[in-house]
Every structure is written in structure tokens, then in C-alpha cells.
Design goal:
Length: 382
């Protein structure tokens, strides 16, 4: 296994850093105050080739997950809230169409999505069902020419700014749990759709939205994948996106760590720089080692995915390790800043809050432990 980052990837990341410095960093404060990300930013990302696809012979071709993860890690160091909005567009909405859409759906949606002209999200979690995906209550009733959907999706990132959502709903209530659900491409300006932004305090400035569906007609051509396979499809989408959310969470940890060390190297107390106290220098060494270790696990998982290997175990281990790390480092860095860390506008404030958010996306820590245990036992233990 080669741990060397290809020169083309290094150049790509450097160009992305310049893009972030020009198009993201100067606008963050205004976006945080407004609590939203302008759609034009997604078009700018698409124009730069930063939405998960490269153009080959005039057509979009999906980038390797390693390449995507390098960008997500950098976004996490600057703004995990912007990072998760980009992740949803690439790794949830567009990825779902790429994995399960028919040729007509792919040709209609993937090119404009890769340019940031069409925004996509996934609606799955409901008031009574999150980790238990099979327990959702939204219903899809077959009618002439398609389906009618009723139900509520509780926490949809990018739900307010997106054009379409991949929605799961019960299409056959009499079927076994693993055959009850189907997935639908729902136009979010359809009659019967109500979108309500939620007042969250994490992953700002991305939106978190409640989407209610009341007698929403979805044409038959907007069924995504096979009928009755909605559970398997949404779980596969989440398994894939665990890699990039791990990269985002690693960036959250790295961003907090960098801010904490820089501050401890500037701040003096009792006549000495904070970083010169052995307790703090040892803590910094410990976290640096953990960041490096988590990055290696993540890169190994990227290698497995990009090589066509089974990456399910690695994705959950990466998610589990990076979340634990981001939580620990975020609090450590905030403590170094003292009272300033509780001020909403202070840059350090977002890191422990966004680490908390990362623990919920693509499955909680308990869900990751369940997957890790099951995959471990399939492999015969240690």
C-alpha cells in the first residue's frame, strides 16, 4: 500500500485551498449571521471541479473517494458547517442517484448536480425513526401514473436549499421489514411539500429542515432503484458517505487542534507560554498522534473503496475514531481559549459543537459499534 499522495491530488488540494481562501473564508461571518449558504457558492464549487466529479470527454466522472476526502478534511478545518452541506450534495444526494438511478435519472441530474446548478439531498430520518431505518412511517400509495407520498422527514440537511430529495417511504406495509420501503426522487417544489428550517446550533451555516409531505404526487419515472429496496439503498448510501463524513470530522479535529496549539503558543500564564507546560505539551503530543492514526485508518478505507474492496468495516471504524477524536480535541482546544470559547462568534466555538453534530450524521456512535462488531465477527474476530 502506497501512502504517497499523487502529485495531481496535491495540486488539486492546493487549488482548492486557494478557492476556499477567495470564495469561502471572506464570506463565512456573513453566512454564519444569515444561517445559510448561497446557492451561488455551489455553482462556484462546480465551476472549480470541487463537487465530486471530474469532466472527461465532456461528461462528469466520479472522483475517487480519496480525492473527495482530502477536500472534506480541509473544509472541516475551516468550516465543518459548510463542509457538511457540500458533503450532502456529493456523498448523499448525487451519490444516491449515481448508485441507484436509472439512465434517464442519471443523465438528467448528475451533470447539473456536478456543476452545482441542481442541489440534491436525502430525506430519511423521521420523528419516530432514525437509527432504525426500517421503522419509518412515511407512506407511498400507488396511484395511476405513480405514487402519492404522505409523511414527515425530521432532520434533512440542505433540505431548504435543495431542488430534489431522495425520500424513503413504506410502499408495501405487508412486506417483511427489509422489503417495506422504496426510494423516490421528490421535486421539492411539488404541491403538498412544506419545508420548515430548524433552529439548530451546530454545523452552521448549513440548513437543517423538516419536510412534510401531504398527498405529494411522484410520477412512476421518479422511483429510484427497485421497489421494496429502499432500506438497502439508503443504508448503502450511508455506508459510502461514512468515509467522507469521517474526513470532515477528521478536519474538525485537526482544525480545533491547530487553533488550540497556535493559541497556547501565543498565550502566556504565570510567566510561561501555555504550550511550555509539560501537561499541555504532552496533551498536544497525544492528540497529534491520534490525528495521524485516525488519518491512516481513513486513508486505508479510501484505498479499500477505490480498489473495489469491501470497505464497510473501515468506514465505521473511521467514523467511530474520528468522532471520538473530534469531541476530545474540540473540548481541549476550547478550554485553552477560556471564556472566549463560549462566545458564538469566536472561531473556536464551532469545533466542539460541530464534533457533536458529526456523531449523529450517518449513524450514531452506537450504530458504528454495532456495525464494527458484526463485521468483526464475520471475519472471525481479531
Amino acid at each position: 500500500m502506497d501512502f504517497h499522495v499523487p502529485a495531481a491530488y496535491v495540486e488539486y488540494v492546493e487549488s482548492f485551498k486557494k478557492f476556499v481562501a477567495e470564495h469561502l473564508a471572506p464570506n463565512l461571518s456573513a453566512w454564519y449571521s444569515a444561517g445559510e449558504i448561497p446557492r451561488d457558492f455551489f455553482r462556484e464549487l462546480g465551476s472549480g471541479g470541487f463537487l465530486g466529479f471530474d469532466v472527461e470527454n465532456g461528461s462528469p466522472r466520479e472522483q475517487t473517494v480519496f480525492k473527495q476526502s482530502l477536500l472534506q478534511e480541509h473544509l472541516g478545518t475551516i468550516s465543518p458547517g459548510v463542509g457538511v452541506a457540500v458533503l450532502v450534495q456529493i456523498s448523499l444526494g448525487t451519490k444516491g442517484v449515481l448508485l441507484f438511478g436509472n439512465e434517464k435519472q442519471k443523465s438528467a441530474l448528475i451533470p447539473p448536480a456536478s456543476r452545482g446548478e441542481v442541489l440534491l439531498c436525502v430525506g430519511n430520518t423521521e420523528p419516530t425513526a432514525g437509527s432504525d431505518v426500517a421503522g419509518i412511517a412515511s407512506k407511498a400509495e400507488r396511484v395511476d401514473g405513480g405514487w402519492v407520498l404522505n409523511g414527515t422527514k425530521s432532520y434533512v440537511t440542505n433540505g431548504y436549499i435543495s431542488d430534489f430529495a431522495l425520500m424513503t417511504a413504506v410502499s408495501d406495509p405487508e412486506a417483511p421489514r427489509n422489503g417495506r420501503l422504496s426510494m423516490y426522487l421528490v421535486d421539492l417544489i411539488s404541491k403538498g411539500i412544506t419545508r420548515t428550517p430548524l433552529n439548530k446550533k451546530v454545523w452552521i451555516p448549513s440548513d437543517l429542515t423538516r419536510i412534510q409531505m401531504k398527498n405529494v404526487f411522484v410520477p412512476e419515472e421518479n422511483l429510484v432503484g427497485a421497489p421494496g429496496r429502499g432500506l438497502q439503498q439508503v443504508l448503502e448510501i450511508f455506508t459510502n458517505s461514512r468515509i467522507t463524513i469521517s474526513a470532515l470530522t477528521l478536519g474538525t479535529a485537526a482544525g480545533a487542534f491547530r487553533a488550540g496549539v497556535d493559541h497556547a503558543n501565543r498565550r502566556s500564564i504565570f510567566g510561561r507560554k501555555v504550550i511550555d507546560f509539560q501537561a499541555k505539551s504532552f496533551e498536544a503530543a497525544d492528540f497529534y498522534s491520534k490525528i495521524e492514526a485516525a488519518r491512516m485508518v481513513l486513508w486505508k478505507t479510501c484505498w479499500e473503496k477505490d480498489s473495489g474492496m469491501d470497505f464497510k468495516l473501515g468506514a465505521s471504524i473511521s467514523k467511530y475514531l474520528t468522532v471520538n477524536l473530534a469531541r476530545e480535541v474540540g473540548i481541549w482546544a476550547a478550554d485553552l481559549f477560556g471564556g472566549a470559547s463560549v462566545v458564538f462568534e469566536h472561531p473556536i466555538h464551532k469545533f466542539p459543537m460541530d464534533a457533536w453534530a458529526s456523531s449523529l450524521g450517518e449513524g450514531t456512535q452506537d450504530v458504528q459499534k454495532l456495525i464494527i462488531f458484526r463485521e468483526m465477527m464475520k471475519r472471525g474476530g481479531v
